[in-house]
Amino acid sequence: MHQQPATARRVTIVDVARQAGVSTTAVSKVLRDAYGTSPHMRSRVRAAVDELGYRPSAAARALRGRTWTLGVMLPDVRNPFFADILDGVGEHLDDTEYQLFMTSGCNDATSEARVTEAMIDRSMDGLILIAPVSPPAHLDRLARTVPTVVIGRHSHSPRFDTVNDDDFTGAGLMVAHLAGLGHHRIAHIEHHETDRIRLAEMPNALRADGYRHAMHQHGLGEHIDIASTTYTRDGGYHGARILLDRKNPPTAIFAGADVVALGVLDALTEAGLSVPGDVSVAGYDNITLAGFRAISLTSVDQAGHRIGSTAARLLLERITDHTRPAAQVKLSPTAVVRGTTGPPR
Amino acid sequence: MHQQPATARRVTIVDVARQAGVSTTAVSKVLRDAYGTSPHMRSRVRAAVDELGYRPSAAARALRGRTWTLGVMLPDVRNPFFADILDGVGEHLDDTEYQLFMTSGCNDATSEARVTEAMIDRSMDGLILIAPVSPPAHLDRLARTVPTVVIGRHSHSPRFDTVNDDDFTGAGLMVAHLAGLGHHRIAHIEHHETDRIRLAEMPNALRADGYRHAMHQHGLGEHIDIASTTYTRDGGYHGARILLDRKNPPTAIFAGADVVALGVLDALTEAGLSVPGDVSVAGYDNITLAGFRAISLTSVDQAGHRIGSTAARLLLERITDHTRPAAQVKLSPTAVVRGTTGPPR
DNA sequence: GTGAAAGCGCTAACAG
DNA sequence: CTGTTAGCGCTTTCAC
Q1: How far apart are CA B286 and CA B335, in angstroms?
Q2: Disulfide-capable partner of B123 in A59, A148, A248, A344 (CB 3.0 to 4.6 Å)?
Q3: Where would I find the HTH lacI-type domain in this sequence (chains A, B) (predicted)?
Q4: Taking each helix axis from N to C terminus, what angle separates B304-320 and B80-93, rounded to the nearest 10 degrees?
Q5: pLDDT value at B280 more than 80
Q6: Number of other residues whose CB lies within 10 A of the CB of residue A156
Q7: pLDDT of the residue at A8
Q8: Helix, strand, or coil here: A106?
Q9: Domains and CATH numbers, chain A
Q10: What is the DSSP letter of B9?
């Protein structure tokens, strides 16, 4: 903190000790519910703390023990799915002393490294990484330094826990829904991925795999049609343009993410096509927006809230016990059918 | 950070000093570009830092100087307008050593206090508060402790800077647009506010005032019609229901925020009314979503990006010079006309 | 059950 | 220009 012109100096543990007539050691112990404090001492210290409005300095604590600070790395505040995850994390942490801080805007390995370093520099007690793109080796090194939980990445490191939704199954659910409506030409828009390792770990790749697999299962293998763009609104727009330009355009477009589906809707609106009359559209993530009546997007729900609370639970466990073997939690998605999908013409 | 089983102990300033063959003071000085370092020493230290991969501990620094950490308090990650602000803040900070951390989910004075305390406990060098609801006295006390910039609140404290968009004028712009299209029965949905002080400081109140004022100016005083709900999607939905149930329902609804307008669109869709054929709809904030073709919402643009970068600039200035008089920056909004507004039937 | 004392990694006086 | 020294506020042995 910045020193003010000799205004109120911050209350320290020494002040509390003096006020309570005990040692600083005693205060420290009471504050941390440590062993070796008498009820009498506890009450005296508590009273002094309240009276003086004492708050422990996290910075000073950091030099010896923990900071009671957790960091969440968010790729993008704009993706509403991440907000659901945050809700879940926050809810689990509400009853604890931990305080959560997040960063956003990490979209490449370099800025991810910068941010995680910054979190370590600040002695955070644990990290939750949402959909990181860094190479597995980097994540591993990181997790060796600080307890870490990774969300949205199908890794199997012994050093950190992972929480994921089963993207392969989720994509299958949506293909089943569309096929059940009678669609054959069901196209998919995927997030273009070149990195070999990430191809196996990133949800986008698994969704595309799930799509392919399900298409085959429904006897629609010949109709597999994938536009490879990005998981953004623009990516959806361009993906739709590509698909609509086919000789035989699809009757249903399954976008790998809701934001992509929104871009698809933009393109269809522009092309004067009706939804779901001319083309059915489905997304993935079930962002809050998908439920808006004006949009009413059929989507796959990932239970972001549960993902978040699970991650928080695992992180606290790992902070308490470093040696616990790493867990890989996989949650089950569900299809949410709304107004943008219907039978083909 | 949590100590690992005797794995790599973190590199400290002592290690660097030994490696470079100089004192820790020297290292510290070089790192902070302080006065009194020879080129030769600088290069030796820099080399040692790189070789050892040394990173200063923010926790240790905090006990003496600054932490190079700034905090942003965000009421709600889901409001996309805040993302624009964050972009602006982040951009201004990119060239600096400062690292930004944010919290979200502060929707009442109690949780705001909890979060700001947490930031102070962690020795953050400066705070940016976005649309705080705490009483002015609390903000004042806070700003006495740590350099603070408040966004989205028309206060005039000598202790902290404020950055705002001119909400009064913005509301007037939208009324002018709708009146210019030929609308008379232009209704407004406001965020219900009871607190007397906040009535004068909060943007929502100023927007409602601006609406009233502009209606009078356009000779539409008799048509002033306000539904008082909340700045949420639900608030918009219910506000629209209220307005549509009037004997003489409005031909245009000006919502105090884009999220509210989205709820209005929901209600209109449900009621089978066309937009803008039956009813024109306008929002406020120009969130990214408003630009989506599938929505195409007419709105007031607040230049969130500029708000953010201005706030960051002011905060850094204030950290450097505590005595600089507080600034109140007011930016000018613009109307963005899209597809949800048109002439009345 | 309780407290004295050492020290976490860094910065700021102050000598040299 | 450079290094020695004394803390910052807390936790943690380790005596008592």
Answers
A1: 9
A2: A59
A3: 11-65
A4: 40
A5: yes
A6: 9
A7: 62
A8: coil
A9: 13-56 (1.10.260.40), 69-165+304-331 (3.40.50.2300), 167-302 (3.40.50.2300)
A10: P
User: d(Cα A141, Cα A134) in Å, to the nearest integer?
Assistant: 11
Which residue is nearest to the C1' sugar atom of D9, using CA?
Answer: A60
- B317 is written with which tokens? 């200035």
Candidate from A153-167, A193-207, B238-252, B317-331 with smallest mean pLDDT = A193-207
pTM given for the model: 0.87
Which pair of tokens denotes residue A122? Answer: 């600040």
pLDDT band per the 50, 70, 90 thresholds, residue A89? very high
How far is it, in rounded angstroms, from Cα A93 to Cα A265? 38
Q: Residue range B90-99: average pLDDT?
A: 91
Q: Residue B8: pLDDT band by 50, 70, 90 thresholds? A: low
Spatial distance between the Cα atoms of A162 and A144, rounded to a whole number of angstroms? 15
CA distance B267 to chain A (A): 8
Which residue from B122, B292, B322 is facing A266, i.e. has the nearest CB?
B292
Asked whether A185 and A164 are in contact (CB, 8 A), the reply is: no
Q: Among B269, B277, B279, which residue's Cα sits nearest to residue B233?
A: B269
Q: What is the pLDDT averaged over residues B232-252?
A: 95
Of A162, A117, A105, the residue nearest A142 (C-alpha)? A117
Q: How far is A108 from chain B (nearest CA, A)?
A: 15
Segment holding B207, helix H or strand E: helix B203-217
Residue of B159, B73, B62 whose CA lies nearest to B116: B73
Chain B residues in contact with A122 by the CB 8 A cut-off are: 58-59, 67, 69, 99, 122
DSSP state of B220: -
For the segment A208-218, the average pLDDT, to the nearest whole number, is 97
The C-alpha atoms of residue B5 and residue B57 are separated, in whole angstroms, by: 20
Q: Which of A68, A76, A77 is best to mutate for the B interface (most B CBs within 10 A)?
A: A77
| Interval B131-166: pLDDT, tens | 999 999 999 999 999 999 999 999 889 999 999 999
A182-204: per-residue pLDDT in tens?
Answer: 999 999 999 998 887 777 888 99
> Coil, strand, or helix at residue A89?
helix
Beta bridge partners of B263: none
Is B26 near strand D, with its CB below 7 A from some atom of it?
yes
Of A114, A34, A44, A41, nearest in space to A73 by CA: A114
